[in-house]
## 1
Amino acid sequence: MLNPNGNSGNLINDIAELQAGSTIKDRTITIDARGRKFRNINFVRVTFKNCKLEGVIFEDCIFEDTTFDDTDLAGAKFIKCNFANSSFRDSDASSLEFDNCILDNFGGSDIDFSGAKIVDSKINNAAFDGADFSEAKFVNVEFDNCEFSDADFSRIKADNLSINNSTLNRIDFSESILVGAKILYCTIERGNFTKADLRKAILDGSNLFGAYFKDALVEDISLYKANITASELKLAADVDKLKIVIQEKRGEYLRASKVYTILRDYFDRENDTAMRNYFHYRQYLMELKSKETPIIRKLKLWVNYISSGFGVKPLRLIFVMLIMVILFGFAYSLMGLEIYSALDASVRSFFGLGGLSTVDPHIMPLITLESIVGSIIISLLVALIAKFNSMEI
């Protein structure tokens, strides 16, 4: 039997050698321990080789530089265990459970974790390339600096799932419940979110280039500083729910403006003029409403908003032109012209039509001013219409 301080030796094939409080070092373990429970054991540089560990329970154990090689771990439970520089290799981990565990520098490619349950656990610097987590459950789980490329996370159920600074290229989240999930500053190129429930999910700073969102639910999703170029976001089941983003609902107007910029540019590339112009309008409206916007910038935005709806409502400028003509006409009537003559003079002056030689000289300075204002507004209207039609506002 191995003493509690640990020693090196040959193959362990007797369950009796795995005693609570012991340290197993530099050993290879080949056992059939199905349904057994092991507590408070430190495994250091250990290889579990061809073991039968279905339904086994490890509690308060430490696995350091440990490998599970060609081992059946289906239904196994790890409770309050710590893993460091350890891995699963060619092993069946379906329906496995991690409860209140820490996995640091953990690895395992093409591993079957389908139906797994991970609760109250932190996983750092782990590599799960090609792993199958389909139909797994995640509750209060945090992944940090992990690699999940080509992994299958389809039909998972997540409650308070957080994935940070990780690579998830070509990951499959289809039909998964990711309500409120935090997937921050991750690379998720060509990720598949088809029919996923992403309501209130936070994807801030993530690269979603080419991601698939067909029939996904995206209400109150957060895309602050995200890259959605070439994605299928437009095919989301409730894409219209993006018209008022979560940042605006929270009163975070400057952040909302940046999200609307992302959406505007996306729909611009997708040649969707209506959506593009809608988000263009909201982008500047949020900047106008933000208390963080400098006062000079606010004044410019107010002029733009009133005159043309930030360039996407050029007909507003026609209304402004009509008001200007009426105001100048009223001014001329106060200076002695009859109302009909005053309006005629205002129209001719504003649009540069001439025929004003008979007007009293004391009115001419005001007519000159109106001519200048009119030429500026007309030029602006022509420019806005041209930009509106070319989508280059």
## 2
Amino acid sequence: MKNSFLNINFSTLLQVSLVVMCVFLLMKNPKQVYPVSTQKTIETRIQGKETVIKQQGKAIDNSKVIIDELNHGLFDLQAELENVKNSRDTFRITQIQDTMIHVLYRRDKEKDAIIAAQDTIIVAQRYIINSQDTIITSQAFDIKKLKRQRNISFLLNGILTTGLIIK
């Protein structure tokens, strides 16, 4: 009789512990192995980078308009220089050449600004791509973790059911 009581008590204890483990696994939140920013934080940062890209795009468009205007002015100066060369007015030729040098210098500065803006856009786009990869990786990890928990839960339910059938 005493031996039967221990078997029932051990069996009940085993069953209760299995139920507790199953409930624990089902209720447990999946945790990341590596610390990763939350998805919402990453999405907020991506939106900030998209805003930077838009602003830099506008700056590039403005610089292109300025460059076009400078090119038109440069063509006008070149035509004027051709006219002045025929009159052999060296003072006026020097003034026009100085103005052309200044216009070319300004055009180069605008092109440098475009290059800097494009570099900023490239960096922001790389950040967005890496952030989206991080989100995808973290979601894949969460899915794997949930599948693992589900499989462990099935295994423990099978053991629990087997224990109940044997009892």
## 3
Amino acid sequence: MLDRFGEVLSVVLGALALAYLAYEIDRRKRKLRELFHVLGSEEADISAELIGLVESGELQPYTRGARA
């Protein structure tokens, strides 16, 4: 009976460890997503349009100390 209890306890503890690991990975992914995805969809569209203008040569990228 004690052997069976030990096996059940090992399985339960292993399942808890895996659940915690999955939770921790998800929590860190959400934290990074919140940290690095600061632009909303409208701002991202504007940014993409500005990058396109720079790449086409219509707009010059900002360089520190350069005067127009």
## 4
Amino acid sequence: MRCLGSLGRAVSDRALLLGPVLPRWPFLQVRRRARVRTAGRECGTVTSESTVAGNNSDVRERRIRRVRAAYVEQFGPADAIRYGAVPAPQPGPQEVLVTVEATTANHVDTFIRSGALGTRIGFPFIVGRDLVGTVASVGAAASGFAAGDRVWCNSLGYGGRQGAAAELAAVPADRLYHLPDRVPIEAVTVLHPTATAYLGLMVHGELRPGETVVVVGAAGNVGSAAITIASHAGARIVAIAHARDLAYCASLGADTVLDAASPSFADRLASATGDGVDVYLDTAGANDLPTAVSLLRMRGRIVVLAGLRTRANLALGDLYVKDGSIRGFAITNATVGELAEAADAVNQLLIAGHLRSRRIHTLPLADTAEAHRMLESGELHGARVLLQTP
């Protein structure tokens, strides 16, 4: 089966694993709309007009110079984030100018803002990687999009790209995806967790139907998305969470739910995974590798994707005699192709109505610093922040 998205590539076998349960990726039949070619490339406060020819008529494009955004002028704590006017994005020929409706804040955004996670950025630096918005204009060499399209992106704000926390954003066309019809802006809160879970499980974990996966931190944003994805992939799921969240994890599709604080936890985990574990995914960042290795069956895979500062002691013999592997994964390193594959899965789950944040805390874009502070202090307790533009 072939994907007709902007990359024009085949959908991988990993994505097809979801096929028996979900529709066969109908949204990938991208509508070929006429491209909008614009002459002016300045954006922000209105200063002038330019003329664009098309369909025997002239279209007046108002050019803007500055936009409001949440940004930092150097690495620092949450209160280093400022909100105010910055130079508007100047999209290149392979970029799409997007009017941002909503963005969010992720833990990885706090790592980049503080300098804890090295990536190429320039100051002043607009924070944030996720957005939902509407196409304002399309570069001359960008295809697959037209003015007015609802779209989303989850890979701004690193690798030399300015972030999403602004009124306008210039997005490379190969990092932009159509938002399915009738999906609200709240979808911005599930983009990063779901793409992270998909890549961790399906790409790095190589999860297959019938395999057993342990998800640690299963009630969190990435953990709950992992349960949803693993369930649709036909895996057997052992979810580890707090007692108050066990029913929630079961409702998402977990086959076995375990309270990590229970005195009988170790025995129950051993019983639930008696035949061994194929994939061990710790979204909480505890990274108890000795326990994880002890649970692996032959050629089992441990995926490490959280716990930036954790350390672990491990008897390597226990790992290699099982042909086991430990695989590090940071979504910041995902290729354009991997992100597009994850986007296929995200959109199909959105279409099916299987993705929604458990709780959403809505703030204006001007309060981006507060969103970062809440994340780092642990105040959100699994809730997601939605930051709305003015």
